[in-house]
Amino acid sequence: MTTTTTLCHPTGSRAALVPWVVVCAGLLALYLPSFHDLFNGAWGSEKNAHGPIVMAVSFAFLYYRVRQLRAEGLLERRPQPLVGGVVFAFGLLCYALGRSQGVLILEVGSMVPVLGGIVAAGFGVRTWARMGFAFFFMLFMVPLPPSIVDVVTLPMKIAVSYAAEHVLYWTGYPVARSGVMLSVGQYQLLVADACAGLNSLFTLEAMGLLYMNLVRHQSAVRNAVLAALIVPISFAANTIRIVCLALITYHLGDAAGQGFLHGFSGLVLFLSALLLTVGVDSLLTRLVGTPHGAEPAGPVAREAGAAGRQHMAATSIAASVAMLAAMLVAGAAAYGMTPTLSGSADIGRLEQVVPETFGDWTLMPSPTVQAYLSTGDDGAATSDRLYDQVVMRTYVNANGDQVMLALAYAKEQRQEVKLHLPEVCYPAQGYAVTSLAPAVLRLANGEQVPGMHMLASSNGRSEAVTYWTRVGAGYPRGALATRMRIFRDGLAGKVDDGMLVRASTVVRDGREAAGAYALQQEFLSQLVAATGASGALVARR
């Protein structure tokens, strides 16, 4: 009996590694292409540069948590293949949809249910729950949808710009602000997304939660207060970074502000946040004290005994092979569902499609106002990155009425790269959107196009804006509707093109907006009648 046990133990140990090798092979086959695209895409930008760091910390923390549970006797082995299989299958479905349609929040986020399902199937739900924070922390490496980032980041950037302006003013520097543009002396600085946006808050929140988990405070109130205070800590750290960049640029010049010291200011951001977090935690320690005693470590559940472990070893190879097959099927499904560029995206050159004279309107020699349709991290116009063609003109009629026209065309509309809406772009230039309402635009050809009316004001200047967005054959209103349109057409196997049509007029106040909207509808109706054959501005029938 003793001899048999001694001889079988090494064999069992080696056999126990085989299922994990099979599962790891499937995970690598599934996610290596995703990580390759992330490093060459979203994670390669300054906005999401924290992604690889969070990923490395996530896996290191997962390994640390497994060893911790094993040392405390809490790494139970109660396989629950049904529950784990359902979670695992849900993760693979998210992966297939996200990978094929370019939805990073589904593609990268699918790793959490996929790994969680594997753990639940092999070790049980209780062990999975005890590793819950490790899986939760992985969510911080998922790139956020641009529509969410655009909506949430802008007020954060304005608030940080406002705070930085006042700090510099109180310290005696010549500073002025317009929206998210700071003027310090002779230099103009645009507060970009990466400098004061949701991504930095996301990263700092991850750091704070990891800090809380590692120090393992037992007071739930203390943990909740510290987690909530991470938001103002992030705000303060971002303000410090902007002030540092402004001072560097003011004293050392633009080259220094945009060079090495710009990247170094990112280290200042995280160092400031870390010191503030530790300082706040120390203050909370003085206020609430440190409770003694640790969570009692329960014994390892051994009800299954040796027979249960032998049964799991006998069935885990078959389960791992099934998981491998499922992952390969998910990868093949993602490849098969990937949409292709629609053949109807050839509209010609907008400069030639849009005439200089049509109806009652004539092109003016030069536009009176041009506003960037979007801005990048460096503050420069990014229309060349988002759009394939951009036309900005000003037209005048016989009565002297002027209408500014902006057309932005992109051959491909995908979840992570799509049209930017005026209600997002105008505030970035210092405008305040005072009204935004749906509108039905009646064109000369009898077609009714769903559009929007917007009124924006800045420094005594107001603009009434009429616009619509065309994605393929539809006219979605808002970022969510645009995302759903792209997703639906992507499942149908095609990548749509996109067009933003915007007409704007300078008005004295909101009382003139109604007349401006009527003028713009007349202008757009005649424009579509002159360009209808091209199918550029409206959907082809």
Give an overview in words:
This protein is α+β, with helices and mostly antiparallel strands and 541 residues long. The chain folds into three domains: 18-143 and 303-337, no CATH class; 146-288, no CATH class; 342-534, no CATH class. It contains 19 helices and 13 strands. It has helices spanning 2-39, 50-71, 81-101, 104-107, 111-123, 125-130, 132-138, 146-170, 193-196, 198-215, 220-252, 254-258, 260-288, 305-337, 350-353, 383-386, 422-428, 478-491, 513-531, and strands at 175-178, 181-184, 187-190, 340-341, 357-358, 361-363, 389-396, 402-410, 432-442, 448-458, 461-471, 494-495, 498-507. The radius of gyration is 29 Å and the shape is flat.
Tell me the major beta sheet.
8 strands, antiparallel
First-last Cα distance:
82 Å
Q: Going across the major beta sheet, what is the strand order? A: 5-6-7-8-13-11-10-9
- How many structural domains does the protein architecture include? 3
Q: What would you report as the Rg, rounded to the nearest angstrom?
A: 29 Å
- Overall number of strands: 13
Approximately how much helix is present in the residues?
55-70%
- The proportion of residues in beta strands is 5-15%
